[in-house]
Each structure stands twice: as structure tokens, then as C-alpha cells.
């Protein structure tokens, strides 16, 4: 499952549904006078955020899958509260929120399908992005410029998926609010590879605790699908931070356009 394509199709479906319910006169009025951006777009940095020092991420590796790392208690309680407050500063009826069947989300940094027009991150997300560079998880060239904020209620989930070629193969996920279970399972494309040519277990699942950081790259990114479930109570807010590689995104779009004419 290509998550970026799934998200794009869901956005189109919601837009079509909204247009079909809106009278022509009202729709014309809305288009002629777009909404003013809310104050949440202009908020500054987080009130509580500690500058990070370099961290040896190998200390936190999950040995069963190369490139998979898990750091419990990566952020403090005050930092968690500050993040959640910024997420919910976006009004529930604002277009920034996208409601899916088993979760809802905010997307910052622009649509993957429109990579020729990237958007600037709000200051508070830029602050978190910079801290991942300070910790040496990312470097300056591939600093996260794209953030997906997911809200999961009790029983919500996301099916096994891959993040795809539009991103640098390195992901950091901050978890707040509630625990959940993450599962990594070997991608079907690797099923036929002999054991002596493929390092890593068939699958692994473990709890993502509040205030933890999950990082995955290398084989964990390219050879495994990942999924989220088992939100038993409360509301989980996760921040998925990635670097969108604009040139690769454009190449992918051009390739998909060519396929439509074959």
C-alpha cells in the first residue's frame, strides 16, 4: 500500500463529496473569498523544548531488523503537553484536519503529489525538525521538511504500508497521548530472498509508549511494511517527520503520468 497515494485519493473523495453537498451560489462565494489563515499557522516555537545533543542511536537499535531504533522517554511531559496543545490549536472544522475512516490527520509541508510547491513548516514543527538534526538522527541536507500528524482514538489503526520513494528513506515518529502497538512485517517483495541474503526477522511488534521516538531507515524502511493498532484507551497523537525529496517526487509524478497513457 502506497500511503501517499491513499491519502491523496481520500482527499479527492472528501472534496468531491463536499462539492456535491454545497449549493452553487454558496460555493462561488467561498471560492471568491478564501478563509483567512488561523492564528495557529503563525504560532512561534514551543514554550517547552530542550535543545538536543548528539545521541548514539545504535544504542537503541532493535537487533532483529537492521535500521530500526526505539528510544523511550525521548521527550518530557512538558514537551508532550506543548506538542498536543499546538496540534489542537487547529480548529476541528478547519480544512487542515482530514478525517479518514480509522483516524484523522494534519499534513504539513505540502502534498507529496505537488512536490514542485513545498510548504514551509510552522515554527514549532521546524523546531522539532532542527532538534532531530542536533541529535544527529538526520543531517542538514535531509532535515525533515514534511510532517504528518495522526490522531488515533480507541480502536483506531492504520494498515500495513510503506512510505514510498518520494521521501528520503529515514523516518522519525514521536508518540504522545497514549500507547499503541507498531508492527513491522517483511515486504512481499523480499519473501523469496534466501535467509543468507536477507538479514532481519519476518516480523516484529512492540508497544510505542507515550513520549517515545521511533526511527527507521535502511532495511526497516525499504524491506518492511509497518502498521499501527492496539490503541486501548485515550487518544494518541503521533508526529511522523520525513524529508521529502522533491526531485524524486517529481520523477514519480512524471512516471505515473506516463503510465496513464500506456
Care to describe what's here?
The chain is of the alpha+beta class and 262 residues long. 27% of the residues lie in helices and 26% in strands. Strand 2 and strand 3 (103-108) form a beta hairpin. The radius of gyration is 19 Å and the shape is globular. Mean pLDDT is 81; it is low at 17-37 and 254-262. It is found in: Nucleus.
Write the layout of secondary structure elements.
Elements: H1 3-21, H2 24-32, E1 68-71, H3 77-87, E2 97-100, E3 103-108, H4 123-134, E4 146-152, E5 158-161, E6 167-176, E7 180-186, E8 203-208, E9 213-217, H5 218-222, E10 224-229, E11 236-244, H6 246-260
Antiparallel strand pairs: 1-9, 2-3, 3-4, 4-11, 5-10, 6-9, 6-11, 7-8, 7-10
β-strand percent reads: 25-35%
State the share of residues found in helices, binned by percent.
25-40%
Number of beta strands: 11
- Sheet of most strands: 7 strands, antiparallel
Secondary-structure element order, as H and E? Answer: HHEHEEHEEEEEEHEEH
Q: Which outline best applies?
A: globular
GO cellular component, one term: nucleus
InterPro entries: AlkB-like, AlkB-like_sf, ALKBH6, Oxoglu/Fe-dep_dioxygenase_dom
GO molecular function, one term: dioxygenase activity
Keywords: Dioxygenase, Iron, Metal-binding, Nucleus, Oxidoreductase
